[in-house]
Amino acid sequence: MKFPTTKQLRYFVALAEHQHFGRAAEACFVSQSAFSSAIQELENLLETQLVDRTNRQVTITSTGQDVEVQARLVLRDIEALVEIAGERREPLTGDLRLGVIPTIAPFMLPTVMPALRKAYPKLTLYLHEGQTQVIHEKLLDGELDVLLLALPYELRSVETLNLFEDRFYLAYREGTERVDPERYRYSRLHADSILLLEDGHCLRDHALAACRIRDSAKIRRFAASSLLTLVEMVDADLGITFLPEMAKDSVILRNTRVRMHAVGEKSSRTIGLAWRKGSARSDEFHMLGEFLRKHGQR
């Protein structure tokens, strides 16, 4: 009896996730023709149709959906096997797939990555940037090994390690009449004054909680889709916002008139690591955490 290869299972899981042959092939770093052939070979091997193909879309059949669930479990078990086999190897060597949220990546990684490469030259780090919910699912599916993210956040089946506190600062356009940073009071802000990221970004929730933003009338309905857009909106004096301390003096503020001002010691988010509960690489991730704690703070 012939069995599917891990490559075929990985490709099929990617296809189920992206619902598009081209995007799934790109995510797997192979040509679309090679990707399609692997999926066809998997269907032939299993003697069943996993995918309904049309010119415009891909639909996973009911059998394919069941196969996808099992394929994810198989791939996760294989990942666990590799972790067990590597328990005795030198720590922070080999491949490590790190998921990181977009409100940390542009601020910490430019500083941390060169230092990490120098300290651990045998470590090959693969980065995946995405919102917390997305990278959490990829972690549980075995696609990522460890996450660099902001806490608190409700995460199931993981262990976490707090690294350091990242304070929130008031961000405003220099010369704005919307706020006096030296005499900032939340109660003095007018309606539609506060700009935030759209739902799905944990920075939005952390800013709301840490900066005690309770009056929804003071929040503009139009939300930014990215940090860059948020900074551009503040630079255009469309409102004020709250940015993490790690953004201070960063590239994202360069060539803008956006300034940052401290608003209180208790207004902060926690930067931390998360990995699958019971991972054989737990000690290694603690080592990584210590390194990030030392080199990741401004």
TrEMBL record:
SUPFAM superfamilies in alphabetical order: Periplasmic binding protein-like II, Winged helix' DNA-binding domain
Q: Which GO terms describe its molecular function?
A: DNA binding; DNA-binding transcription factor activity
What is one term from the GO cellular component aspect held by the record?
protein-DNA complex
What family does the Swiss-Prot or TrEMBL record give for this protein? Answer: Belongs to the LysR transcriptional regulatory family.
Known InterPro entries for this protein? LysR_HTH_N, LysR_subst-bd, WH-like_DNA-bd_sf, WH_DNA-bd_sf
Q: Which residues are in the HTH lysR-type domain?
A: 4-61
Q: Would you tell me the protein name for this molecule?
A: LysR family transcriptional regulator
Q: Does the keyword Transcription regulation apply?
A: yes
Please report a single Pfam family linked to this protein. Answer: LysR_substrate
- Which branch of life, at top level? Bacteria
PROSITE patterns assigned = HTH_LYSR (PS50931)
Print the keywords alphabetically: DNA-binding, Transcription, Transcription regulation
- Decide whether keyword Zinc-finger is in the record: no
